[in-house]
Amino acid sequence: MVKTTLFSKVILSWVLIGSFLLAQKVTHIKFEGLAHLSSSSAKEIAGIRVGDTITAENINESIKNFFDQGYFKDVWVDQNGGTLVYHFKEKLAISNVSIKGYGSGDDGKELIAGIGVKKGDLYDERRIKKATKTLIAKLEAQGYYDSVVDVSTKKIGGNSMSITFDVNKGEKITVKKINFVGAKALSKDEIQVDIASKEADSLGWMPWRNNGEASVSQLEYDTHRVRNTYMEKGYLDVTVSKPLMRVDFGSYNAEVDYKIVEGVQYRVGKITLTHNIAGFKSAGLKDDLILKEGKVFNVKRMRKDIANIEAEVGNFGFAYVKVSPQMNKNTSAKTVDLNYVIQPGQSVTIKDVIIAGNTATKDRVIRRYIYLAPGDKFNTKDLKDSKAALGRTGFFEKVDIQSQRISEHEINLLVNVIEASTGTISAGGGYGSYEGLMVNASISDKNLFGSGINTTLGFEISQIATNYNLSFVNPKVWDSMYSMSLSFYKKDYEYIDYTQDQLGASASVGREFYRYFHASVGVGYVDNQSTINENAENIVQDFLYNDQYKKTSVFTNISYNNTDDYYVPREGMKATINFEYAQLDGDDVDLTLFPDGYGQFLKTSGKVGVYYGMEDLIDYDLIFRAKGRFTYISRNDGEKIPTAEKLFMGGVGSVRGYDPYSLSPSLVSGDLVGGTSRASGSLEASIPLSEAAKMRLAFFYDYGVVSLDSEINIAVDSVARSSTGVVLEWQSAFGPINLIFAYPLDEEEGDHTSTFEFSMGSKF
């Protein structure tokens, strides 16, 4: 018997020669040492079958075939007469791959997946070397140079091994200077605003400053970014060279040169739209374009105009509109004429609406908010409104609706959603000189069991208050346009002179109108039992707090909402107006002060919020918000309005920086009497802090006033207060959390202020 190995060429040659001389037939084939291949697969790979003549060529070829599989470290053949015995020494399997010093968590997993070596692979020196080079290339792409990657292995058991890539990051290249040679019209700061590798600022280590770290992988694209910046300023003929980076590897500082030929600045000449779409009127659309005739040309605004034109044409059923701008430059006049050529393609209809990504929300609930159904003609506005309506539900973190072409005249709508956490344990609180430490909490789910039903069970506990509430809202009863709500509450609030004890319930039905409008009517009942503190003055007892009555009310509500998101709207408006007509019954009124007793009253209240995102205009996610609220109570002369029904200000929802319910007209003694009219407004500017953490920072200014119509011959003044501050807004896994830091601007003696509050839950 002669043994043959791949690494012993001399021995192999003698064996093959001997086999050839014998010229024997193969009578039997055996395989020893196989783990990754079955015997039947090995026979196919070997290419030698029983009955074949044993030759040097066919044995050599069969060994080569096995090595080509990549499974084996060594293969050799023993021949015993007509029997061939193949022996295999397989490569070790990789049981674990880890990277130290570079990447962690999900980033580390993605990094491992991208280097070409993973758990379950067979160990191969060539692949390990390639993975090492890949890691170094990734580091260089991020600006790290002279990085070192050491590979260590550890054998586990007899057939596997663990591999560790130990990364020692090199040094970051810092861009100390950028030279824009030939730049005259624009400053360095203007030119480099969008490039990835910017010049280092002084104090560059501060968060809002640029540290100058080079992004080498993006360097080639910076040329296009510089050119685009010039085209946003009207320089259509600008040429920008590829950047030349000179690196001092002693200090790892770099200097970058660009050569720029600016050309002339163009203004917009004549703007025309060319199309042959029946019924489409382009005259009105031209007036709505952002880029105007006579203004400096701006390529960014032109692109936005193209998108707006495509959207408008899409309302005529065209899902694949193409708008091509034809630009006719007049160098001597320094103008450019624009002709938007509109190619609508074929009008299409919806074949099917396919929903994906919803793990909790039922398909039928999602379909309620999609305004395009199978058989409908495609419409861009309906598509945009559908996405906004789904965003307003608060059920989803992300909503994406794409079209899928099925045929020349049909498309499918692909609705992809990412579920949000709708079941929350919400909490809020604050500290004030009057209330002390206050905590509130609730258990709620705005999408109970994926049905779209909103339920809440909440409570509030502080040194002076204990409140409970239970509510149930079905916004789409049986997937219809109708809604239904029920609520119950118990409220105990301990004021300075009295304690308010209320038990109430309400029920309403409503209907959606014209997509953005909703109207409802309902009834309510309240049993109020107020108890007087022993030290209260007589006038306080008679005039303010001796209120034990039952209230039956009928109310109606009209609301409008076309915002694009539930938690962080960037466009649209919310508005609500509510009317409540109430009948009060009770016999504890001092008839000398109020001869007609409790009687009736009409309460009118409303609120509005307008949201405007600036990202399309300034490429920064700045959001402006303007909010207003008002309430007015009217009643007949001689009829008393209980203190519990009157109006107070302070806290979240009115004027932040003052304790809740701490602002209202008051007597000379300082006792609050409540108001019959109240109005407040807020201006806010919200900026992003961390997109990954879903955190924003909002700056606000609040102003509010509360007044009292004369009831008896006691004069009281209106109360007006304002405040300013910041809010840390965090869209957490537990719901929206707001940390409020407020500063009262016009605090007066006797005011109860609160410089910090927090809330968790939905906000207006």
CATH class placement of the largest domain: Mainly Beta
What's the number of structural domains?
A: 6
Number of strands: 35
Strand content: 35-45%
Question: If classified by CATH, what would the architecture of the largest domain be?
Answer: Beta Barrel
CA radius of gyration:
38 Å
Shape: extended
Tally of individual helices: 13
Largest sheet: 16 strands, antiparallel, barrel
Termini separation: 90 Å
Q: Roughly what percent helix?
A: 10-25%
Overall SS class: alpha+beta
The named CATH superfamily of the largest domain: membrane protein fhac: a member of the omp85/tpsb transporter family
Reported by name, the CATH topology of the largest domain is Porin
The neighbouring-strand order within the major sheet is 20-21-22-23-24-25-26-27-28-29-30-31-32-33-34-35
* Low-pLDDT ranges: 1-22
Write down the overall mean pLDDT.
Answer: 83
